[in-house]
Amino acid sequence: MKTTNPKVEALLNKTEWQDERNKLRAILLDCELSEDVKWGKLCYSFQGSNVAVIFAMKSYCALGFFKGSLLKDPEGILVAPGEHSQAMRQVRFTQAQEIEALGPVLRAYLHEAIALEKVGAKVDFSEKNELEYPEEFQMVLDGNAALKAAFESLTPGRQRGYILHFTGAKQSSTRTSRIEKCVPTILAGKGLNDR
Asked: Is residue 76 within 8 Å of 105, Cβ to Cβ?
């Protein structure tokens, strides 16, 4: 399997999860997907739409499906990468033999993912927009018009990041502390993890 994209070559030459990456890559390319590097990961698309990505984490290697929540998953192998993931689903591996054993299943899932792209299927992200502001934050917003305007001007993803951060605290005092620490960042128009 020859590649001419230097970014792809660089990822394939990394020693961590090298065998697993190559086995997943062979399956993905066999499904006639286009290959590129996005977000520092091997990314595979169909007619310009992202379908799958290969993740190399510390404790596992994963094949991620961008619209995985729409897949049927008869084998029960898909997992959400995080508690708040709405669309992405992954199949995780700790050794190359697992990929070999699941090869036909992975191909079937990939063909289903491609079929979803062909019909223009969309993930319903309405839950993402239904954020419930913690009482402590709502009180601060109500008393600070500049902060409210700055928060409302943030992208929906940045707003969501802050709300999840604030509501992740169990105690009111911790929520209040988190809010106070984030006020300057919000006023600067930055997201929670922006530098």
From this structure: no
